[in-house]
Amino acid sequence: MPQHDRRIHSHPILSPAGRKQITFTWQGNKLTGLDGEPISAALYANNIKVFGHHVKDHAPQGLFCANGQCSQCMVFADGKPVKACIHPIRQGMRVDPVDGLPGLPPGTGTLDFTSIPEKQVPVLIIGGGPSGLSAAMELAKLGIKSLLVDDKSALGGKLVLQTHRFFGSKQTVYAGTRGIDIAENLSIQVSKEPLIEVWSNSTALAVFSDKKIGILKDEKEYYLVEPECLLIACGAREKFITFPGNTLPGIMGAGAFQTLLNRDQVKPATRVFIVGGGNVGLIAGYHAIQAGIEVAGLAEALPECSGYRVHMDKLVRLGVPVFTSHTILSAYGKDSVEKVVIAALGSDGKPVSGTEKTFSVDGVLIAVGLEPIDELFLKAKEYGMKVEIAGDAEEIAEASAAIYSGKLKAHEVAALLGMHTDVNQEELTRTLNILKAKPGIVQPEAATEIHNGVMPVIHCRQEIPCDPCVHLCPKGFFYIEKDDIRTIPVYKGDSHLCIGCERCVAGCPGLAITMVDYRKHPEKPRVSIAVELERTLLEKAGTVNVTDIDGNTLTSAVIQEIHQVARLDHTFIVEVEVDPEIATKVAGIQIQAEQDFETGAEIFDLSNEDTIICRCERVTVGEIRALIRSGARDFNEIKTITRAGAGSCGGKTCRSLILRLFREEGIPQSEISLTVHRPLFKEVELGVFAGLHLNAAEQKDNHD
Amino acid sequence: MTETFDVILIGAGSIGLPAAVMLSQAGLKVLVLDQFASPGQGSNKKAIGGIRATHSDKAKITLGNRSIELFAGWKDMTGDEIEWYRGGYSFVAYHEKDASSLQTLVKEQQGLGLNIVWLDKRQLLEKVPDLNSVNLLGGTFSPDDGSASPLLMAASCYKQAIKHGCVFHFRENVTGLIIKSSKIEGVVTSTNEYHAPIVINAAGAWAGSVAEMAGINIPVVPDSHEAAITEPVARFFDPMIVDIHPDENSSNCYFYQHWTGQIFFCITPSPNIWGFNTSETSQFLPLASRRIIQLMPRLKNIRVRRTWRGLYPMTPDGSPILGTSRECSGFIQAAGMCGQGFMLGPAMGEMITRMVLDELTPMDHEILDILSPYREFSGHEKLK
Question: How many CB pairs under 8 A join A and B?
Fold first, then answer.
C-alpha cells in the first residue's frame, strides 16, 4: 500500500463503492483514483489537501464545503477551472492547482441556444433529505403529485452520511435503523411512487418574483418550474468559528468531513481533533474511529456536551478525551493543518493562560452548530407564493424529527392546495415536539444488582426520544412510557426470566446496554459488549481494557468470544469475563491508546485581529471590527467596503460570524441592517442559462 | 431644537455623495439625509461601474470627460482604492444600420471633444480578440473611458465628506420641505426639522416625490434593469462592450471585466419595466446570457455569481436634470440621471458646488441650459 494512501479499504458498516481504478495526473505526477469520484476525493485519497492558492494573499486553498457552494476547492481539470468537490475525475485527466485567478477557457464549439424549458407542478419540494422525502410520500398518499429536487446524486440528505443507528420512535420514524438504511428505504419508496418525480443532482438556484423557481437540473440544464405550492426542505448549514489558522486546508465542517469519509470513503485525516460537543461533532468522531482515524480529542465550550449523552459515552468509552469548558485557540501548519491548540475557558468565558494543550493532528473538524437554510423560503414568502417549510430548514432538530415534520407539513401543503385532510394535527404536533425535544438532564446511573442468571444492564442515563429496546426484547421486558418515549427505559424482567438473546445489546442505537451472564462461571460473570468497529481490531483471546460508562478503565480482560446477533447487522458482541463487583459497571471497550498532547504556554492574541472571517474574499476580523467600531451598522456597508459576503459562497459562512462579531461589540440586533439575499444559490455557468449544453460528455455520474 | 446648515442634500447616492465631499471641502456646513441605512444603498450599489464620456451631447460629454479625470485621480487625491480601470468603451456593430449610425455619431462626438475612433473588424478584433467575429462590422473605441467600483466610490466619498465635517443622517425620510415666500428654508423628516438656505434634491429614483413636496413637477420616473456579476477570472479583455442593437426583448446589452476580474453584465428590457420594483425576475438570465454569449462566446463558461435589479431614474429625453427651481429659490434639482448617476456623479458634484458658491463658468451655463428642468424634453439621447 503506498505511503500516502488515504482510501478506506475496509469499513465496519460501508462496503466499497465498486468503481474502476483510473490514473490521472496532479501537477504532472501520475496518481490513481476511482472513475467518477469527485476530484477532491481522488486528491485526498493521495493525501493532497492543498488545491491552490488565493489570489489576494496566496493562502493555501482546499476542500471546505464539499457541496459545490464555495470555490475554495477550485482546480484545473484538463485546463478548465472546476470545483473539485463536484467535478468527477476521469481516466487520464490532467488536474492542476489554481494559483490566483484562473484563466477562462476559450469559447470553442457552436452556439446552439435552446429555449429554457418551463414546467408546472402542483407541489415542488426542494430538498430530498428526511423531511422532503417523507413529505413527498405523505403527499402521494393524499393523491398529490410532487416534483422533488435534490442537489446530491443520492437521495436522503445528510442521512446518507450517517452510518449509525438512529434514535427516535421505532413506530413512526425508523428508530434503531442506520441513517444510510433509512435513506435507502425512503428513496426506494419514493422512486416506486408514481406521483413523485425526482430530480437528483439538481439545485434550486433562485425563487423569482414571477413565482418561478430556477433549477439547475442534473448539473447541466436550466429549468423554470412554476409550482402551485412550494415546500422548502433544504435542511441546515453548518456554522463556523474564527480562530487564527481557521482556513488551513484540513480544517472543515462535519458535513465535508463525513462526505469524504462516508460517501467517498476517503480519510480526511489520520488524526483529527473535533471542536464542538453537539450530536454532530460526537457522531462525526464516532464515524472517524469506525474508519480507522485516531480522534485526538474533542473540545466543547460549554461545561457539558450538548449532544446526546449516549453519543458522548460511546466516544469516551472508545478512548476519546473530551475537554469540556475548552475552546480552540489556534491552528498551525505550513500548507495544511499540523497542530491545534486548545485552552480551558475561565468563568469569564475567556481562555485561561497556562491551560493550553497542543495536539499534533492533520485534520480539525468543526461542529459548532447548525443554522436553517431558509433563504428560498423567505423569498417565496416575500413574493406571495404558497409556501411551507419543513425539517431543519424550519428548526434545527434530529433527523427523526425532520421525517415527522415533513409528514406534518405535507398536510399543510394539502390545505394550501385547498384539500381537507383527515388528520389529527394536534396529535402529530405533540409527537413532533417530543422528537424535537432537547435532551434531558443526566441522571446518575441506576445500580443494577445481578448475582446469578443472566440479565441486561442499561447504561442509559439521559431522557432522549428513543425506544428501539422496547421492540428488540422478544419477551417484552423493556418498558418506556408509551406516551412519552423520552423516559429512560426500565428492565422489568429479572435474571431468570431473561433468555440472554443479546438482541437489546446489539440493537441499542447508543450501544448503551450490556448483558451480565453468571450461568457459566458464578465467580467470573461474562459481560457482553456491543462493538461497531472493524472486526479485525479485536480478536478472541486478546486482551482489552474495559471501561465504565465514563470511559474510566476498570480492568483488563481477555476476550472470550466474538459473535453476531441475527438480523442486527454490522454489530458484534464481545464477551469478556470480569470480577462480579465490576460486572454491571462494564460499559465498553477502550480502542484508542491514550491520546498525547503538549502543554505549555501559548502567546495568544484573543483579538483575532488577523483571523479570517470571510474565507472567500479573505477578510479579517480586524477589518470588520474596525468598521463596526467606526459606526457601521449596515451589513451592506460592511460588504461594500470589505467584500465580506460578496464572494463565491454568498455569505453562507461569514454572515453568522459577522453577526456574532456585532454581538461581541455589544451592538443590539435592532440597530443592524441585514443584507438582502440575491440569487443565485450557487454559481452556474452563463451558458446554462442560454440553454447551451455545456460539457455534455463530462457531466457527473458519480454516486449513482 | 432645529439645526441649521449651509446646504442640505437629500440622498446619499451617486450624486449626493460626491456633492457632499466637494461642498464640505469648500467649507460649507452640509447635512446629507438618506432613507437607507448607509451610503449608496439606493441605486448606487446597483450600478455596474461603467464610466464613460462616450455620450452624444455636449453637456454629458463635457461632464463625462471631467468625471473620468476625477475618477482617474481619485486614489491619488484621497488614498482610497476605488478599483478604477481605464479599459475603454466599445460600441460594437453587427448590423449595417448600427455601423452607419455609430460612424456618423463618432464624427459628432469627435467634434464635441471626445477621444473616440471607429475601428474596423480587424482592428476591433485585435483589441478584443474574443468578440464573435461572425458578422462583425466594426465598432467605436473610446480609450479614455473605464470603470470603477460604485460601492467603493460611495464608501470613499462618505469617508472623505465626514473628514471635511459633513453630517450624515441615515434611515431618515424627508417628509416635507420648509418654504417661505417661494424660498426654501429647510426640510422636515420623519424625526426632525433642519434649516438651510439651499436644499438639493439628489434623491435619484425618488426625486419626483421630493420635488412634489414643493409643488414642483419634475419628469423623473424610474424603470428597472437587471444585472449580474460572475466569478473572477484572469483578465482577458479591456473595454466595456455595448451592443445597441434592439432585439425582441431587450433594447441593448453591455458587459465588461471589472478590476477584480469579474464580469458585470446588464440588458435594457424592451419594453421598459416602469416602477420601483427591484425584485429579481426569471426572464433576465435567459435573455441576457444569450445576447452576451452571442457577442463573446468565450463567456459561456464563466460562472454567474449574483443577480440583482436596479432603478434607472429616467427623464423623457434621456438626459439628466440639473438646475435651480424657478418656483422655489434655493431648491436645486440634481436628478433623473437615467442610469448614469455613478459615472456623472463626481463632475455633477463639482458643478453643484459651483452653483451653490455662485462660481459658474460660461461652459457651466451652457451645460445648465442643456440640462435645465425647464427644457422641452423633446430631444433624444442617442446613447442612453
Answer: 154
Residues 101-130 of B with CB under 8 A from A: 130
Residue A639 with chain B: CB contacts under 8 Å:
151
Tell me the pLDDT band of A606, cut-offs 50, 70 and 90. Answer: confident
- Kindly report the average pLDDT of chain B as a whole number: 96
Q: Are residues B48 and B183 in the same domain?
A: yes
Q: Are B226 and B130 contained in the same domain?
A: yes
Domain membership flag for residue B377: no
pLDDT higher than 90, residue A444: no
Q: What is the CATH number of the domain that holds B174?
A: 3.50.50.60
Burial of A596 (0-12, 13-18, 19+ CB in 10 A): exposed
Burial of B362 (0-12, 13-18, 19+ CB in 10 A): exposed
- Flag whether B75 is in a domain: no
Q: For chain B, first and last CA: distance in Å? A: 45
Give the minimum alpha-carbon distance from A155 to chain B in angstroms, rounded to a whole number: 26
Helix axes A179-192, A130-141, angle to 10 degrees: 30
Choose among B233, B281, B289: nearest Cβ to A208: B281
CATH number at residue B302: 3.30.9.10
CA–CA dist B204, B339 (Å, integer): 9
**Distance of residue A83 Cα from the nearest chain B Cα, in angstroms:** 11
SS3 A505: helix
Cα distance from A347 to chain B (closest Cα, Å)?
38
Residue A151 has, within 13 A of its CA and on its CB side, a CA count of 19
Q: Tell whether B269 is covered by a domain.
A: yes
CB atoms B303 and A683 under 8 Å: yes
Contacts of A683 in chain B (CB under 8 A): 230-231, 303-305
Residue B35 included in any domain: yes
**From the list B155, B290, B297, which residue is nearest A640 (CB)?**
B155
Residues B13 and B120 reside in one and the same domain: no
Q: Judged by CB atoms within 8 Å, which residues 69-128 of A form the interface with B?
A: 71, 80-81, 100-107, 109, 111, 113, 115-116
pTM value is 0.94
Confidence tier at A358 by pLDDT (50, 70, 90): very high
Q: Distance (Å, rounded) from C-alpha A349 to C-alpha A325?
A: 9
Of the candidates A113, A214, A224, which has its C-beta nearest B290's C-beta? A113
Residue A485's nearest CA partner among A471, A469, A464, A504 is A464
| pLDDT confidence band for A16 (50 / 70 / 90) | confident
Q: Quote the number of domains for chain B.
A: 2
Does residue B303 share a domain with residue B225? yes
Residues of chain A contacting B232 with CB distance shorter than 8 Å = 55, 101
- Lowest mean pLDDT across A63-72, A693-702, B151-160, B261-270: A693-702
pLDDT digits (tens, 9 = 90+) for A298-319: 999 999 999 999 999 999 999 9
Mean pLDDT of chain A: 93
Look up cell 455613478; give the residue.
B342
Q: Tell me: pLDDT of A697 over 70.
A: no
User: In angstroms, what separates the C-alpha of B15 from chain A's closest C-alpha?
Assistant: 18
For residues B303 and B251, membership in a common domain is answered with: yes
Judged by a CB distance cut-off of 8 A, whether residue B188 touches chain A is no
* In a shared domain, residues B138 and B165: no
For residue B236, give the nearest of A104, A210, A224 by CB distance. Answer: A104
Residues B228 and B305 in one domain: yes
pLDDT digit string, tens, across residues A241-292: 999 999 999 999 999 999 999 999 999 999 999 999 999 999 999 999 999 9
Query: What is the extent of the structural domain holding B37?
Result: 3-60+150-220+317-370
Omega of the bond prior to B271 within 30 degrees of 0, cis? yes
Question: Within an 8 Å CB–CB cutoff, is residue B133 touching chain A?
Answer: no
Segment A664-672 shows an average pLDDT of: 94
Residues of A in contact with B280 (CB under 8 A): 206, 208-209, 678-679
Q: Chain B within 8 Å of A634 (Cβ-Cβ)?
A: yes
C-beta of residue A637 within 8 angstroms of C-beta of residue B37: yes
Domains in chain A (CATH in brackets) are 21-103+243-366 (3.50.50.60), 118-236+372-435 (3.50.50.60), 495-590 (2.40.30), 612-671 (1.10.10)
